[in-house]
Amino acid sequence: MRRTSDVLWRIPTMQRWCSFSAAFLSLAIAAGAQPAPQSSSSSPAGQQAQESTSGRPHSSSLEAGGAAITLETSEAMFNIAVALNACGYDNDLANSSPIRAEVRAEVDAATASAPEVKASRAALCRYIHEHELSDKGRDIAQYISLGLYITPDLKPTADETEMPPDALNVVNLLPLLRTFSEQVGLKAIWQKHRPEYEAITNGMHDQVTRMILDTNVYLRLPVSSYDGRRFLVLMEPMLAPREPNGRIYATDYIIVSSPSAGGAIRMDQIRHIYLQYAVEPLVYARAQAMNRLLPLLKPAQQAPLEFAYKSDITLLLTECLIKAIEAHTMDVGIVKPAKPTGMRDRQEFIRYDAQVAVYDRNAEEIRRSQVDQEMRHGWVLVDYFYDELAKMERDSIGLKEYIGEMVYGMDVLREQKHESEIVFLPPTSGPSGDFVKRSPRVPTGMMLAEKMMLEGDIDGARDIAKKALDDPKQDHAEANYVMARVQLMEGEPQDAVGTFADVINTSKNPHTIAWSYVYLGRLYDTLPDRGKATQEYKEALKVQGLTPDAKYAAEEGLKKPFTLPKSSRQPAEDKEEPLDPSGKAEKDSYKPDAPN
Question: Which helix (H) or strand (E) holds 213?
Answer without folding.
Answer: helix 186-219
